[in-house]
Structures are given as C-alpha cells and as structure tokens.
User: Which sequence fits this backbone?
C-alpha cells in the first residue's frame, strides 16, 4: 500500500518525497546527478547557471533548483531539448572563460571542466570573446590566504552568498552589469584591504579557479632542501580525518600514521602534532577562565575563545569592543610553534644540531596562513610559525613527491611534541574546545563523567548549541557557535540581554575546523563523518585529559616555567591601541 | 479667458518655458487679467510648444509650435482684442490626431494643471477613492476590477483584479502597493507623460489598490532620469496629504495609506518586478527565482501588489463608471485603452491613447498621418527590446495582448517605432540586441553570455564578415535563451532578432550570401569607386586615407583602392577636388 508520502514521476519512475525544498534534491536523492554550477543546499537558491533544467509534462523547461516538488509532478531530466540547452549554456560559459586549464590551480577539480567533459564539448563555436584569450583582469594576490583570478569567474555567486549569508562579512559582491559583470571587493579594491577574515569558505565553494587557496608548496620544498634549516612540522587535528579523502580512503581508515610517514618521506626532520598545542590551550584557557570567575565582578561576560583566527579578525573588524572579552590565549598552532622553538633554542647545544628550526603547520584552515604572518606572532622580527600549508596543499605535495600514500607503512610522531590527549584532538570540530575545557573543570575524571560530558549537548554540527555545567557552587553557562552569521545573531541576543553566558566558543567556519577553507571539498554527509571520526580518535587516545599529558607537565616544568604569559598569551595590536586611547 | 501652456518634458524641451514666460510678461505689460497655467503633455509632441487659449465660453483655440516671438501677436490680437491669430492655429490634421483617440488614462493630460490638486478634484478626481472607501468592500473593489477585464499595462497583461485578489487573500498584516514607474524601453514615454501631466490619477489608483488589498504603504519606483515627473509626484503627494486623500485617516474613514518615492538609477532590468523590489530594499537590482511570487512575498518579503503607472491610472475610471462601461471599450478580454508612444519614420509623432484592438493601419495612417516623406511602410517595432516587428501583413491586426502574442510580438509597455523602406532590419536587430546585452543584469548565463554572443554575431553580419551559419547560430542561441533565461527580460531578449529573421529572412540572406545590404545602411557593404577617367593621380586621397587603402597614382594615372582595407570613412571623397571618388 502506498503510504501518505507524496510522489512525483522522474523519467517515468515514481519517486516518493517528503520535505525536500526543491525538485533538484528529490531528483538527486533518486540517484540522478543533475548538473549544477551555482547550487549549494546551505546557501540561498540563486538560479543563475540554468544547468539544472528539467522538462515538465507540458514540455516546459524549468530550473529544478527553484521549483518546489508537488504531488503528482512529472519531470524528465534527460531529453534532447535539455541536452541541447545544457551544451549551449556550457558553450556560452566557455566562450568567455580562460582556456589555460593546464596551468590552472583548479585543473582536475574544476566543476566547469568536469561538465564540459561530461557533455562532450569538443569545441567552442563562439570564441571571438576577448576574455577567453586575454587576461582582462588583474589577479589579486594581496591576501595571505586566497588568490582571486576574475578571469576564471563564471559569476555563479557562490562565494558572494557564502561570504554574506553564512559569514556575514560581505567582502565581495557583484559589480557592473551584463557581460561586464564581475565579482569584486567594493570599488575594485584588493581583497586584503577589505573586511575579509581569510576563512577561505569562498574558495571552498568556488566551482572554478576564480578563488583558490594561496599555494605555498614551493616554499616548503625550498625549506626542506635548505641545509641550514631544521624543518619541523605540526599536524592539526582536523587534517587527519580529511586528507585520506584525497587518496580515496574512507573515514574509518586511520590516516594519521600514514600522514606522519608521508611527511618523513617528503623530508621533514621532525613530525609533531598540533593537538599538543591544543592541550596547552586547554590548560591556559581554563586557568584564565577560572581566574576571571574568581573576580567575576571585574570582568565583562561572556569570555570568548581565541583559537580561531577567522573569528579574531572578524572581532577586530566588526566588534573591537569585544576584544577584552576574548581569551588572551594564543591559538594552539602559535603556542606550539613558540614552545617548540623555545625548546630547541634552550637545548640547541645539547641536541648538537645547529640548524635553525623552521616550523611548518599543516592546517585545515586558510586563516592560519594570515595568522602566522601577523606581527604579534613574530619573535625578533621572525615568524614563530614559518609556513602554513592546508590539508589540500599537503595532499598535493604528497602527490608531487610521487608517494604512494595508500601503501605507506604507518609511523608514529616524534617525542615530545607528538604526544597529545583526546581533549586536544577534538579541537577540530565545533564544540571540541568547550568539551576539552569542561573536562578540565570537572572534578570527577572517570569514564562516566566523560560520557556525561559528551552527551551534555556539546556535540553535534548545529550552528548554535547551549550547555550548562556545574562548577563548584555556580552553574557555568556556555554557548557554542559556528559560522559568523550565526555568531552575529547570537551576539545580538546577548547584547539585548535575552541570553547570558559565561563562556562562548566561536569557530568562523560552519561546523568548525573539519570544514575549514583548506580542507578537501565536502558536503554535509562527509562533514558528519569527519566529525564522528574525530570523536573516535579521542576515544582511541590513552590520555583523555589535557592535564594528564605527561609531556605537557614536562613542558611547563622545563620550558614554560613561569613564562606562560610571554610564551602562550597574546595582546593584539588593536587592543593595545584601544588601551592607549582609553588612558 | 485662460491660457494653458503644455509643459511636459517634451514641451519644455521644445522651449515651452520661454514661451510661457514671454506670454506672462506680455500679459503683465499690457495689464491684462488672464491666468497663464502649466499643464502636462497635450500629446501632439511634433507640434510643441503648444499654447491653448480657452475663451470665456470654454472654446479652445490651440496654437502650435509657438516660439516666444510669436507670443506678441497672440497676446496683442487674441488675448487683448479677442481676435484669434489664424496663421498660428493648429492645422486640421493635427486636430484629427487628438480627435481620433479615446482618452481615459490621458484624459486630463494637457487639460489640468498637474501641480494643482484642485484642478484634479474639479474634474472628478478622488471621487473613485471616496466611493471605494465609503461604498465598497475590498471584495467588491477586487470584483469590479476583475469584471472590468483590466490587464496589466506593463507588458505581461496579467489580469489586475486577479492579482489584487491574490494579495487581498494573503494573511500577512503588512502588505505593500508598488508602482512600477521605471519606464525604460527606448522610445517609450507614456508613463512619464501620465506622471507629469496627471500624477493624482495614478496616486488615486494606488490608494484604491491599498483599500482593496489591505495595504497601508505604497512605493513608487521611478527613474531618476524623469526629474520633472518626480517633482510633480512629490508635489501631488504633499497636496493629497494636505487635502486628506493620503496619510492617516483618509476622508475620515480611518483608513491609512502613505506613499514613498524611490529613485531608480537607470537600470533597465529594475523594471522587472523582483529586481525592482530588490532595488527598493537597497539590494542590487537583480531578478530572483520564483516561487515565491510577488503577490506572496514581494517587497520586504511581504505580499505586494505591483502594477505599472498606466494600470493604476485606469482604476479610477473603472470605479467611477463601472466595469460594464469600461469593458465596452476595447475587444473581449482586452478591455479599455492602451497608450502608445508613436515615434520613428511617421509624420505625426506623439503620445496616443486608443481602444485595445485598434489596428496598426489606423494608428500609423490615420493618427500618425502615414510614413514620413511619402516613403513606403516597412515595419513597426512594438514592445521595445522585448517585442518584435510587425510588417505590412499585420497592418489590419487588432493590437491587443492576445492577437500580438499569436504573431510572436507583444504590446510591452507601448513603444511603437515606425520604420520605412530605407531601414535595414539587421541593423535594427543589432540596435536592440546591443541595448539588451548592455542592460542585462548579468545574473544568468543565457542572458549574460548569450545576448553578448548574439550581438557579436549580428556585428559580424553588419560588418560583412558573416556567412549563412551565422544565421543558424543566431537561431540556436535565441532558442536556448528564450527557454532557459531566468527572468522575463532575458527570455524575451532574442525577440527582435527572431522576429526580424522570421519576417525579413531575405534581407539577412542578402547580407550574408549576396554581400549586399539592400537598404544601403550597413557601411561595410559599400564600395568606394575611383573613376579612372576623372582621377589625375594627384595623391590627395592617398594622403588622407587613415588605413593606407589607396595605392598607385602618378601623373595622369588613376589611384587604386583596396576595398577590403577601406573602412568607408569617406575622407578620400571629401579630399578629392575632381569628384572622381564615389561610394556605392
């Protein structure tokens, strides 16, 4: 018996549907890959590429992205008419698109290239357009994180909607009309001069090579082959659960040991784990929080986390008044670099290695490239983190080196900075920082307590979560937010007095670092698998509490001592300026 | 006795202000007590400036093309001594131009002073609003409009009553009435004339729409290029508020309605409904995908009535006279009148209003006085860049929404551009395609890229570098754009090309196959010929040629021109002292 479910007919087959917002989703769920260049389910429906057209039972051509499903609807997805129009639309796009595929950063991952191949576009009949052969627009390399090449833009608007709808930044938008349409910062300015927070989400959704992550692989090779440099690499938590995707591995595969082996094969001298830095952050941040709680009246609440550089930049740009409320802790990456370099400086004689330490961080994040270049993270004018490569760049580097990743023998990271707790590794997903800090706060450190925390509401990929945790005689109220538009909405409610918190975790990217701008292209399903795998990594750790990491204890004893403020905390320029202005 | 001077933009452009000032000055000097008033476009644009003298019995004497120096005679003989100056009066065919029209929308244009609400009230203004507020329910108003068969005059021809009813049925407590006054078609100026000549008529229609649908706020989206219309609208809104026809508690009924004016920055696409509302909201003017429709989620995501100027201007007539009387004008399902801006190669240009279903022949040959210079009629472009061209075989076609749709054209907003035998239809298609591709918002691929490619192909034809495949390519592109573009403007962008190819295929073929532009319009098809008999090889032509297309030439030996290199600038023709060079 047919249930109450509604049905539509797709290519003659009856397909049930429920609450899909458009027939495109229904058709895709039915296993038919409708081509699109401007559709992302997380973003508003734009309807510009017209590739998702289908034919209804009256022969009308309609876009499936903008048509809600109706009971009894009949559509066809592959008719001669649709084939003809799709091919023509692709030819139109290609007529004004740069043809230098061989030297394009996006070659092989380009949606336009893939569709041209899929629809067998063997030649472009209309190629008088100047744009196809001449670089009309200057390439914008001003950003530390992304490169904009407007010559490759197909005006799908994905980046524009991502930047404004999800991130509330609006650094880029459309300008001009008709054939002169372009995506650009206001007044044709460089992207570095805008309010861009370097999150790289624009590059993550760009179907072509119009916005790409700044490629710095050659700098890594130069350092590796420089006899005067001792190359040290740190791997961020979210990298280990995504890199395997570039080599066809599943999320169940334990990729970290393979990454470590690959990094050694590439030629890095020492391979460590950023999760160690995360453990330091947990200790410092929870200490800072407790200090603030001790003097609860002296502080404005809530306290905000500080590990996400996209969020820091956003606060500097849009809410400088919040800076005093942001934890002074450096990000795990910066804590790590600083402490490692300190160790090597202290023990240089002892280690009989006089090469200059040079730290490379493998990050899921494009904003980290910008963070590492900031003056606040330089010692005697030199960067603490010398280079940041994204997950994607590392994958490409492994391919460049000709390493057969899947047949590598697993290896373990080096001591002491390759050791980490499970609390450090879950930093890579939204709610992870909070969960790690809660583990530090609870008195009872047994398994039941751990399980209790994991079910307290900190986990899950929602844009906003709320948790309350008892601490001594108070109830600590916590909010966890990801995506900057979600943050902005939350802030409005905090400022209006509707909501009150003690602690707010902010991650700029939707879902946190597992969906950072430097990660391989993903979708909802992939991201939820990444998240599960990160929690599995935590579960596999012998050490679950940051303070139980013996090498953390050692670091405090041997390196940090009483210098934790100098080494692990930061005061941003803008705060110094604000302070000076107040005085 | 009173004097009216037509001062729409057309009148002012022809010098009506100077004429009016001069008359006022002379009346003052002669100590006469005769008011000189401003009125909107009288409609006979080709005879501007127009001065209407009404004697005490209300008899009208219409002086045309009145330059300031003619004012002396008019004031001295007519105003002072009561003897009309025959030689300046309107010629007979000019009178016929107005007499053959049926004016509803333009009824008061050129008759009342648009800056004086009393004059509008004196001719029955705001009676319809009073009736709607005091004697009718919203359901009855919507029903009356539905029964009248009024259809949107902006181009699509959607039944206005049905639209109002849909908005009325929406549950939202905030609704809007929006007037599309972003008239952007080349050669169209009907809406401008209404706003300049009779702004209250349109305001009254908007307020009634508010009463009918439960909206309390209206927006007029008008082009900034219409400064006179904007200033008269502002004056009208202010006066209507003072008089209690607008604002809070209208006519003591407790109904509130306010109207805002938003200026458009000259983007043609902002005439498209969803782009227009986006622009009012402060967003980039780009059409969005539908659903939701404007009646459900329009301006600020609220239910919205969106009609154009002419549509709103029809409303008071329907409410006053009833739907039956209104329906008696026009053809079945195409009730009422339509205003057209008649331009191009026609003797009488101007603003006309005729019943729906009037034939082209009547418009062009009766009202328009036939084709200029006695030339042969070739075609008329109707509906601007979204429309198509009609030819001799369509002369007896009734002009209404449905008949035009059948022949692949549309009324559009009402531009009528008449073309004579010397007009090259490829050039016309090129002109309109250039317009649409420039005015494309750039959002969807077919419109942004497709229209640009079509323009390039048309340019190939005009520049004599096309072949027959160019026409096939044009047709293929047009088919894709028509079927896949996002908004109405995109979908109709290929119409001028399609309809000229359909009606004038031979002319296209003459270009691409025979290498001839039959009308001699396309320069690239011309040849420069040097008469060997006349040329003495003096070298003057060779010197001025900017592209070195001329060679040879020595004492008494003629020059030779390479027509492939030649850009037809004709510099050589002007330079030659012996008339030895010609272009054919």
Assistant:
């Amino acid at each position: 018996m047919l249930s109450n479910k509604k049905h539509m007919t797709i290519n003659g087959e009856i397909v049930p549907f429920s609450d899909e917002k458009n027939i495109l989703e229904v058709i895709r769920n039915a296993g038919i890959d409708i081509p699109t260049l401007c559709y992302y389910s997380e973003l508003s429906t734009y309807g510009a590429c017209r590739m998702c057209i289908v034919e209804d039972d009256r022969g009308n051509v309609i876009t499936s992205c903008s048509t809600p499903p109706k009971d009894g609807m009949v559509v066809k997805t592959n008719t001669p008419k649709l084939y003809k129009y799709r091919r023509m639309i692709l030819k139109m796009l290609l007529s004004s698109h740069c043809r230098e595929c061989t030297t394009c950063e996006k070659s092989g991952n380009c949606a336009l290239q893939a569709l041209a191949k899929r629809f067998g576009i063997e030649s472009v009949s209309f190629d008088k357009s100047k744009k196809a052969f001449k670089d009309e627009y200057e390439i914008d390399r001003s950003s530390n994180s992304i490169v904009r090449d407007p010559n490759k833009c197909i005006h799908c608007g994905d980046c524009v909607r991502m930047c404004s709808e999800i991130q509330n930044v609006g650094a880029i938008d459309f300008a001009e009309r008709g054939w002169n349409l372009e995506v650009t910062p206001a007044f044709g300015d460089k992207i570095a001069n805008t309010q861009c927070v370097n999150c790289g989400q624009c590059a993550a959704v760009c179907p072509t090579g119009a916005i790409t992550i700044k490629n710095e692989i050659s700098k890594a090779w130069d350092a590796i082959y420089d006899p005067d440099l001792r190359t040290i690499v740190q791997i961020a938590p979210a990298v280990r659960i995504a890199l395997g995707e570039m080599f066809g591995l599943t999320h169940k595969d334990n990729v970290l040991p393979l990454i470590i082996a690959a990094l050694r094969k590439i030629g890095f001298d020492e391979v460590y784990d950023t999760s160690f830095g995360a453990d330091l952050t947990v200790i410092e941040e929870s200490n800072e929080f407790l200090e603030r709680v001790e003097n609860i009246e002296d502080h404005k609440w809530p306290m905000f986390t500080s590990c996400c550089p996209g969020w820091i930049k956003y606060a500097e740009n849009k809410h400088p008044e919040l800076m005093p409320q942001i934890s002074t802790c450096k990000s795990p990456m910066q804590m790590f670099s600083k402490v490692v370099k300190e160790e090597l400086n202290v023990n240089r004689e002892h280690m009989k290695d006089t090469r200059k330490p040079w730290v490379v961080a493998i990050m899921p994040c494009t904003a980290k490239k910008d963070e590492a270049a900031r003056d606040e993270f330089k010692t005697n004018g030199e960067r603490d983190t010398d280079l940041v490569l994204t997950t994607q760049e590392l994958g490409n580097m492994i391919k460049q080196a000709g390493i057969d990743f899947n047949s590598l023998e697993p290896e373990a990271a080096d001591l002491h900075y390759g050791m980490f707790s499970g609390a450090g590794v879950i930093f890579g997903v939204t709610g992870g920082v909070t969960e790690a800090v809660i583990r530090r706060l609870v008195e009872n450190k047994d398994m039941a307590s751990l399980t209790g925390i994991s079910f307290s509401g900190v986990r899950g990929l929602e844009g906003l979560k709320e948790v309350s945790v008892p601490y001594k005689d108070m109830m600590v109220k916590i909010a966890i937010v990801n995506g900057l538009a979600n943050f902005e909405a939350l802030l409005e409610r905090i400022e209006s007095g509707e909501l009150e918190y003690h602690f707010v975790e902010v991650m700029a990217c939707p879902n946190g670092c597992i969906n950072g701008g430097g990660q391989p292209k993903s979708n909802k399903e992939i991201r939820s698998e990444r998240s599960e795998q990160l929690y599995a990594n935590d579960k596999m750790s012998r050490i679950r509490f940051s303070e139980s990491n013996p090498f953390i204890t050692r670091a405090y004893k041997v390196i940090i001592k009483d210098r934790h403020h100098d080494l692990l905390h930061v005061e941003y320029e803008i705060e110094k300026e604000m302070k000076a202005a107040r005085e | 006795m009173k004097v009216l001077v037509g001062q729409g933009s057309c009148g002012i452009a022809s010098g009506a202000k100077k004429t009016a000032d001069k008359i006022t000055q002379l009346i003052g000097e002669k100590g006469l007590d005769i008011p000189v008033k401003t009125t909107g476009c009288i409609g006979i644009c080709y005879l501007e400036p127009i001065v209407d003298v009404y004697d005490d019995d209300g008899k009208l004497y219409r002086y045309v093309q009145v330059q300031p120096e003619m004012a002396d005679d008019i004031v001295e003989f007519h105003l002072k001594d009561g003897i009309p100056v025959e030689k300046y009066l309107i010629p007979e065919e000019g009178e016929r131009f107005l007499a053959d029209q049926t004016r509803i929308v333009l009824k008061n244009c050129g008759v009342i002073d648009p800056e004086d609400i009393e004059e509008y009230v004196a001719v029955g203004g705001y009676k319809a609003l009073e009736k709607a507020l005091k004697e009718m329910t919203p359901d009855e108003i919507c029903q009356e409009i539905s029964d009248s068969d009024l259809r949107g005059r902006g181009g699509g021809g959607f039944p206005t009553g049905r639209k109002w009813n849909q908005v009325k049925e929406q549950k939202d407590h905030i609704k809007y009435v929006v007037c599309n006054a972003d008239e952007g078609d080349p050669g169209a100026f009907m809406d401008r004339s209404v706003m300049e000549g009779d702004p209250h008529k349109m305001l009254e229609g908007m307020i009634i729409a508010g009463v009918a649908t439960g909206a309390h706020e209206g927006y007029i989206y008008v082009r900034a290029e219409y400064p006179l219309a904007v200033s008269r609208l502002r004056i009208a809104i202010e006066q209507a508020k003072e008089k209690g026809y607008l604002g809070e508690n209208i006519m003591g009924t407790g109904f509130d309605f306010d109207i805002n004016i938003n200026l458009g920055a000259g983007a043609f696409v902002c005439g498209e409904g969803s782009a227009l509302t986006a622009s009012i909201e402060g967003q980039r003017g780009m059409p969005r995908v539908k659903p939701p429709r404007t009646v459900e989620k329009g301006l600020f995501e609220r239910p919205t009535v969106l009609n154009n100027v002419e549509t709103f201007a029809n409303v008071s007539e329907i409410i006053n006279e009833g739907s039956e009387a209104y329906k008696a004008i026009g053809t079945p399902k195409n009730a009422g009148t339509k205003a057209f801006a008649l331009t191009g190669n026609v003797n009488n240009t101007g603003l006309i209003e005729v019943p729906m279903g009037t034939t082209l022949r009547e418009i062009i040959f009766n009202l328009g006085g036939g084709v200029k210079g006695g030339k042969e009629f070739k075609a008329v472009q109707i509906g601007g860049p979204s429309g198509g061209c009609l030819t001799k075989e369509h002369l007896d076609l009734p002009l209404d929404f449905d008949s035009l749709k059948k022949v692949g054209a549309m009324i559009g907003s009402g531009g009528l551009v008449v073309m004579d035998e010397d007009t090259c239809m490829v050039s016309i298609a090129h002109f309109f395609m250039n317009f649409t591709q420039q005015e494309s918002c750039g959002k969807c691929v077919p419109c942004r890229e497709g229209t640009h490619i079509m323009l390039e192909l048309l340019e190939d034809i005009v520049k004599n570098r096309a072949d027959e495949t160019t026409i096939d390519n044009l047709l293929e592109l047009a088919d894709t754009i028509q079927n896949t573009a996002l908004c109405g403007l995109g979908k109709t962008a290929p119409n001028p090309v399609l309809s000229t190819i359909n009606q004038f295929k031979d002319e296209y073929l003459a270009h691409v196959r025979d290498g001839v532009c039959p009308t001699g319009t396309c320069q690239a098809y011309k040849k420069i010929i040097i008469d060997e008999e006349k040329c003495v090889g003096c070298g003057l032509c060779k010197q001025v040629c900017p592209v070195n297309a001329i060679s040879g030439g020595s004492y008494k030996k003629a020059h030779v021109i390479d027509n492939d290199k030649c850009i037809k600038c004709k510099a050589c023709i002007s330079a030659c002292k012996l008339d030895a060079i010609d272009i054919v």
The interface with chain B takes residues 45-50, 53, 61, 63, 65-66, 68, 81, 84-85, 88-89, 92-93, 95-96, 125-126, 128-129, 154-155, 157, 173-174, 176-181 of chain A (CB under 8 Å). Residues 274-294 of chain A form the longest helix (21 residues). Chain A has 21 helices and 19 strands. Chain A has three domains: 6-78, 90-213, 218-574.
